[in-house]
Design brief:
By secondary structure, this protein is an alpha/beta fold. It folds into two domains: 2-173 and 370-382, Rossmann fold, CATH 3.40.50; 176-365, Glycogen Phosphorylase B (Rossmann fold), CATH 3.40.50.2000. The protein has 16 helices and 13 strands. The protein has helices at 19-32, 52-60, 75-84, 113-116, 125-141, 150-160, 176-179, 183-198, 219-229, 250-263, 277-286, 301-308, 321-325, 337-348, 351-365, 370-382; strands at 2-6, 39-45, 65-70, 89-92, 105-109, 145-147, 167-169, 206-210, 238-242, 269-272, 289-292, 312-316, 330-332. The strands form two sheets. Strands 3-2-1-4-5-6-7 form a seven-stranded parallel sheet, with helices on both faces. The protein has a six-stranded parallel sheet with strand order 10-9-8-11-12-13, with helices on both faces. Helix 12 packs across helix 15. The longest helix is centred in the middle third of the chain and has 17 residues, at 125-141. The relative contact order is 0.13. The mean pLDDT is 92.
Length: 386
């Protein structure tokens, strides 16, 4: 079978990618790397793929795989690319299916939060109506749908009245580098990460919150809980907020400013706005706790990556986080500041508890892999009649 992959979600040079581009790249690597005998076409805008992405595309090209360069990120450019260099079935890792495509299409859906909580997003009513209608049509028309979690599958089935047998759960594989670290190698990587971060001014034990700043990440709850917990820590404990600025930042920035004002000399608040992939790994490895108070997550990639890094996780019960974390981390109600405060104090003051959570998370993370996700995706793609 000749399978195409719509990679218009890969960011242009100079732009930072988020979870979906990262997951798309990892899935491509795993799919093409299976040596399945299928042909692959990767439809990629000319402006996309620099750094790690470019290296990957150079790596896979020629392995029954061709790169089809599109003039732009528009649906029209994709239609032109498919017309000139066609495939039999198209996988859309972003989940957003372009209009006017005349072949079987399989979207990979990460979440549908915008349908239940439009107030969390920056689009105008007109743009939101257009994009959600397009998404709805793509999902309903698709012969098969891939979902990153059972939570997201259930949301899709409920909202769009889909036959559950048409929706397959792939899960995600997290970070392959972190996932392959064990024993002495993991401990050595953690020490190197701490040394590099000390050179950047992060010298004390810290709690990490990693991700784009946006309303559904529920950052004010964590900031308030950390501020209230500081005096109860047995030692100074910093808080690192890492991730690019997103949207609807007013309340978030107000909470950040308040937490900075309250921090004083003992504990510090660090804001890292544009962490590179390597910097992200260092943060995950060096943190003593990764805290994720999200109101909603379609999967929970940061939680999985933290567990792969052998770092304790405290996450909310929002969305798919319980599905990803399971019993290997601490699960808390997303908006109860007092419970978060008590949990931060308990975990950060108890080294044995942190070690136990970290070990449980590392073991649990072995249940996730991109090879497994790719096998599920390929089974779905190859059973479609073309």
């Amino acid at each position: 079978m000749h399978i195409g992959i719509d990679l218009r979600c890969i960011p242009a040079e100079g732009e930072s990618g988020a979870g979906i581009p990262h997951a798309s790249i990892e899935l491509v690597r795993a799919l093409v790397g299976q040596k399945s005998g299928h042909l692959w076409s990767l439809y990629l805008p000319k402006t996309s793929a620099t750094g790690n992405e470019k290296a990957l595309f150079q790596e896979v090209q020629g392995q029954n795989c061709r790169i089809v360069r599109l003039d732009s990120v528009t649906g029209g450019s994709l239609r032109k690319g498919l017309s000139q260099q066609p495939c039999q079935v198209l996988l859309v890792p972003s989940g957003a299916v372009a209009m006017g495509l005349h072949l079987p299409i399989v979207p990979w859906v990460h979440d549908i939060a915008i349908f239940d909580h439009p107030e969390w997003f920056p689009q105008s009513i007109l743009k939101r109506t257009l994009t959600t209608n397009l998404f709805r049509k793509g999902v309903i028309k698709a012969p098969e749908v891939l979902s990153v979690s059972t939570f997201t599958k259930d949301q899709l089935v409920s909202r769009f009245s889909l036959d559950p047998s048409r929706v397959s759960v792939t899960l995600e594989g997290g970070d392959s580098f972190l996932g392959n670290l064990h024993g002495h190698d993991l401990m050595a990587a953690k020490q190197r990460a701490k040394t590099r971060l000390a050179g950047r001014g992060v010298t004390q034990p810290f709690i990490l919150c990693l991700g784009t700043l946006e309303p559904r990440k529920n950052l004010p709850t964590l900031l308030s809980a950390w501020s209230a917990a500081r005096q109860s820590f047995k030692r100074p404990v910093d808080l690192v907020i890492a991730g690019r600025d997103g949207w609807k930042l007013g309340p978030i920035m107000k909470s950040l400013d308040t937490a900075k004002d309250q921090a004083g000399d003992r504990s510090h608040l660090h804001r890292i706005e544009t962490p590179t992939d390597e910097h992200r790994k260092d943060l995950l490895l060096a943190a003593e706790l990764v805290a994720l108070p999200s109101l909603y997550e379609g999967f929970g990639l940061v939680a999985l990556e933290a567990m792969q890094a052998g770092t304790a996780v405290a996450a909310s019960t929002g969305g798919a986080l319980p599905e990803v974390v399971g019993s290997a981390g601490l699960l808390l109600p997303p908006s109860d500041i007092s419970i978060w405060q008590a949990a931060l104090v308990d975990i950060m003051n108890d080294g044995e508890k942190r070690k136990a959570l970290a070990a449980a998370g590392k073991a649990h993370s072995q249940d996730f892999s991109w090879a497994q996700s790719a096998r599920i995706a390929l089974d779905v793609l190859t059973r479609i009649k073309v």
